[in-house]
Amino acid sequence: MNDNRRNFIKKGAALAALSVTGLGAYAQAGKEKNPAKKAPAAHPGQHQKVVKWPVTEGPKTAHISIGSSINADETEMQQIKQMGADCVLMGGPKIPWTTEGLRTIMDRFKAQGLTVVNMMIGGYNNAIYGREGRDEEIENVKKSLIAAGEAGLPVVEYNFYADRFMEGYYEKKGRGGSGITAFDYDKGKDAPPKPAIGTYTADQLWANLTYFLKAVIPVAEKAGVRMALHPNDPGVPISHGSAQIIATFDDWKRLVNIVKSPSNGMTFDCGVSREMGYDPIEVFRYLRARDCVNQIHYRNVTVQEPHMRYEEVFFDTGIVNMFAMMREIIQSGYTHGINPEHPRFFTYDKDKPSYVTGKGYPGGSGYSGQSWNVAYTRAMMQAVWSL
């Protein structure tokens, strides 16, 4: 952990020392007949370094990863490759996972030039609710983490929702009739508890999460696997009578300090951070300085009232500075996946199957929408690298 911090500090200091000369020099270079041989200096007497193109991600950089399925066929995999993505994430099989089972899934994608970098694990509801049977479920999670390490799966993502509040979502029309996902807590804030779940206080859920983490994180760390907890989304205070305990920045700080380890990390989401009223760069810096960003969701929003009312929008129309966010990610030395998620709905996709996003999410879905997200994200990555 200390070595990771020292490496991070060294990288940050080296990047801070770089001279960023601005886009104007590159625009001028484009006017030269052979800019690779002669690039103008940004200031008299200052040498301007020429960046070799194409600039691409690799194993030692952040990399775009796209949502898929363990049952994806060859056509679906080809479509992901055609977007320019080389990495995928997906929901994992039923626990306990086995090394052989994971390798079989990962090898299918590898044959199509895709690397599985993240699987979502589930099947531990008794652990979430502190019910009888949780120890057996936790043992299955431990076995799954060991299998993930042996299979070479670097990240295992998970949720710890008592209940996810979905009633507040609805679709709005965006530019040209595209789909925007809007949220209003008032649309369902008084929804009654679900009989199968009941109600849970924050203290109860924190106790259950602490019990879970203290059991599984040492196993994940030994296996060389990073766990990534996604924050509550939407980050409302109460859902069907139960508290939401990963719904504020203070909650995220508390989480990563329960067991201090790179294996006890989060899925950082710049959209969720802004939905909750926080500066995404401030949130990222806190988590990254502790080596606890194990997966990134990259998306944009507009916010009418933090936590309560907001809209998920096109990356170029929201209030998150997506270039500044990407610059922070890359300059930090982050080397895990970036998922350009929650694509907007395009009319073109209306009668076509959606291979790369889940269905039933109002205002978003579709292959062309996902392709737009990937293109924008790669443009941001290349813009940062070129500087």
Overall description:
By secondary structure, this protein is α/β, with parallel strands linked by helices. It is built from 12 helices and 14 strands. It has helices at 2-16, 23-29, 74-83, 99-110, 125-129, 134-151, 202-223, 249-258, 270-275, 280-289, 322-331, 367-386, and strands at residues 63-67, 87-91, 115-120, 155-158, 169-173, 179-184, 226-229, 238-239, 242-243, 264-269, 293-297, 300-305, 309-313, 337-339. Strand 2 (87-91), helix 4 (99-110) and strand 3 (115-120) form a beta-alpha-beta unit. Helix 10 packs parallel to helix 11 (322-331). It is globular and about 60 Å long.
Number of helices: 12
- Cα distance, first to last residue? 30 Å
SSE arrangement, N to C:
HHEHEHEHHEEEHEEEHEHHEEEHEH
What's the gyration radius in Å? 22 Å
Which percent range fits the helix content? 25-40%
Shape from CA axes? globular
The residue-averaged pLDDT reads 88
Strand content: 15-25%
- Order of strands, widest sheet: 1-2-3-4-7-10-11-14
Contiguous runs where pLDDT drops below 50 for at least 5 residues: 1-42, 356-360
Count of strand segments: 14
Structural class comes to alpha/beta
For the biggest sheet, the summary is: 8 strands, parallel, barrel
